[in-house]
Amino acid sequence: MTLSHTDQSWPTSGISFGGDYNPEQWHPDVWREDVDLMRQAGVNLVSLGIFSWGLLEKAEGVYDWAWFDEIVDLLGENGISIDLATPTAAPPSWLLARHPEFPPVDHDMTRHWPGARLGWCPSNRDFRSHALRIVRAVAERYGSREHVVMWHVSNELGGGNGHCYCDVSAAAFRNWLKSRYGSVDKLNEAWGTAFWGHHYGTFDHILPPRGNDAKNPSLMLDFDRFSSDELLEHYRAERAVLKEVTPDLPVTTNFMVGAEPDAVDYARWAPHMDILANDHYTRSSDPVPQQDVAFSGDRMRSLTTDRRPWLLMEHSTSAVNWQPRNRAKNPGELIRDAISHVAHGADGVMYFQWRASRAGAEQFHSGMVPHAGPNTKVFREVRALGGHLRRLAPVLGSRVPAARVGILFDNEAGWATRRGVKPNNFLEYGAAVRDWHAAFWRRGDGVDVLPPWKDFSTYDTLVAPQLFLVSDDTALRAEEFVAAGGTLIVTAFSGIVDENDQVRLGGYPGAFRRVLGVWTEEFYPLQEGETFRLDNGWSGQEWTEHVHAEEADVLARYQGGALDGYPAVTVRTHPGGGRAVYVSAGIGRAGIRALVDDLVEPPPEVVGRVPGLEVGVRHTTIDEFVFLINHAAEDATLNISGTELLSGLTTEGSLVVPAGDVRVVHRSRPA
Ligand code: GAL
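A: This is the predicted complex of the input protein with beta-D-galactopyranose.
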């Protein structure tokens, strides 16, 4: 088999399996039981030291390494590798007591109090110098240990300190603006500061968007961009120290990529990671959590340039603790979620956290070892999963095949949608994108969820759901995509503003008007509970608009109400056969599904279609791995031949995937 991670070796020799390990919460006697259980479960990697700063550095420059040495040794003796964290997510209480100015300040100018985590302003250089001191100390002491295989910078940067509005941040924001715009005149133009007389004579008068009054959307968008860049700077400063001490160890930080706009702009962060890592959690209220798993994987993979595997750094074995009602996972769900992440390109499955805590803010969050101990559904499934992942070692380094469908997802578009007042303030960007993803996922289509500056040419179908902010470059490349024969689907409230968050004039959906051959005169957002109907039988809520289809054919018209007879869904067929479809109304999941089925050929079948059976594929140049995940309550019988990796048995023709279970078949890649 020709498997390899291109320029960076993977931290474990097989699929990585383990989780956050926080031994400081437990007596050393428990540590021995921990490593025993880890060995039983097949754990080969743990993230260590994430919140240990205060226990490692008791006062400035005064270190207590003894307990950490012991745990590092113990893991090494038991063959467990370490993804070693820089502990900067948890500044020690002595440091925060001395520096009450370190914690971030909210938009209403209340400063966070110590007692949570990530309690620091990303722009504060004093804080950074303390952070880099502990980073260097940890790196110098442990970086050369053979079983320290990777660096985990801080933890979920931006989760707690995504924005800081303090004076230090304000000064840094001004510097950032100076380098972005060069002159204050350019900034005035970009922000449209003539409105409400906000014109600036000097950068010195600019403030972050503090307070609760309506603010200039362009200012707010730049503040979001700045905030992401500041945290990236922090990550890069830590990374530079780590690379200086251990040039060959991979460095990463854990992203939080899901269906919401991100706290920071991960698509722009990704090139600074040696290995991409994600924290993904499903929601108790989600009726189809498995689609959310697929969505996050489809986004993660699309952050790379070569579809390389990524690491699932955190997931939950069962319930989390941060939702209003925290559902325990059903039997088998832990394994299905994990295998689905692997099917979507993860070469590792890690959890928060090894052992469920007795105390502290997350005492009711599941772990790999629950409060009740190892004689439990959760630990039995953890152990079974460890066996599965060990048998899946041949999958390591293989790729998810190129997708036919690309869905655009852009943080800046999401941020700009969320900030500032809109014609309808109940449009949710992440949900809009996920609804389109669901329509394709349900049919077994391979989907990439990609940032809009990436190459479109490899896709047959490209969807721009509610892509509010669009650059000229993206608009042009979308036109080229259609000219080359692609099908572009654009939905309402896309293409509305440019990169400065200024409205594109001449009719909506500005950036896409030309390619779609339509223009919209006015938006008609609906009231809560109000519905509309189309003449093809579809209905929906939330959004309608007054469309003129000058160079497009009408697929469906509004029926009844103020827009009676006006186009609702249109298609413009271009000379090369490319199509540009505009969906001007909130047609909901059923409408989206029907439209996708009308417009886009279903994907070729891998094993035949069985309701509730999710099929994923990864391949190398010569091998193919078919992941079969049965979410249904009935067994699925399929026609497939190859070696079933979890059992090691050869299957000739017929394979049963029991209800709720998983199988992975290895076969030669078809020509
Ligand atoms: C993550 C975080 C972990 C833990 C987990 C709980 O966001 O990185 O430390 O808090 O959530 O779900």
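Residues 405-599 form a domain with the Rossmann fold fold (CATH 3.40.50.880). The first strand starts at residue 16 and ends at 21.
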